[in-house]
Amino acid sequence: MRDLEVTATDATDFRVEEEFPRPGLVVVAVHGDLDLHSAGELGDRLVGVVDRGAASLVVDLSGVPFVDSQGLGALLRGTRRFGSGKEHFRLVVPAPEIRRLFELTALDERRGYTLEVRVSNEAAQALYRGFGFDLAGRRARYYTDDGEDALVMTTPALDDARMRGILATERERLT
Fold first, then answer.
1. Inter-residue contact 31 to 66 (CB < 8 Å)
2. Each residue of 69-106: pLDDT tens digit?
3. Distance of CA 68 to the CA centre of its chain
4. Model confidence pLDDT, tens digit, residues 115-163
5. Using alpha carbons only, what angle is made at residue 74 by residues 119 and 58, rounded to the nearest 5 degrees?
6. Do residues 150 and 117 make contact, with C-beta atoms less than 8 angstroms apart?
7. Are strands 114-118 and 89-92 parallel, antiparallel or unpaired?
8. What is the fold, at CATH topology level, of the domain defined by 1-106?
């Protein structure tokens, strides 16, 4: 018999289920949009799985119709403690449009990363700068809820000396 834990969030269409098919393995099934509103809970849940001693983690995104940059960040936050071992972490991403997002953002040392952040979100801008992001541009009226502009921030290529230093520092901090 498998254990199952379900947690509901404020977002009525988002939920996370944990299954424990065998000792050391946790399957986290995500349902609903993985976005600004739900990313925090998922990141916390994934970190909790690691902190409780899971040896392997499968994140099943079969029930996820949409992922934004906050959702990607939650996945990174929750899973980077596993390191690079493929035997420890797996993503299940059957939707081609979501899978393409992961293909486009795959860790490729020849390029950097780009993100958008609200002009008013100075705390997030500072956080991103700490991870090597620099201001690259501005997108007028980017956010549809209030028409706020977005700042575009990018990193140098990941094989750049500055980025190698930032990544090494973060890996050391997490281990």
1. no
2. 888 888 877 666 665 444 577 888 888 888 777 766 65
3. 9
4. 889 999 999 999 888 888 899 888 899 889 999 999 988 888 777 888 8
5. 160
6. yes
7. unpaired
8. Transcription Regulator spoIIAA (3.30.750)
Whole-Å CA distances, 30 to 36, 41, 42, 80, 93? 15, 11, 8, 18, 11
User: How many other CB atoms are there within 10 angstroms of residue 172's CB atom?
Assistant: 8
Q: Where in the chain is the domain with CATH 3.40.630.30?
A: 108-175
What CATH architecture does domain 108-175 belong to? 3-Layer(aba) Sandwich (3.40)
* Domain boundaries for CATH 3.30.750.24 within the chain: 1-106
Query: What's the confidence (pLDDT) of residue 18?
Result: 93
Contact 92, 59 (CB under 8 A): yes
How far is 149 from 55, CA to CA, in rounded Å? 42
CA–CA separation, 11 vs 32, rounded Å? Answer: 9
Q: What is the pTM of this model?
A: 0.55
Instruction: Give the C-alpha separation, 115 to 101, whole Å.
Output: 13
According to DSSP, residue 125 is labeled: H
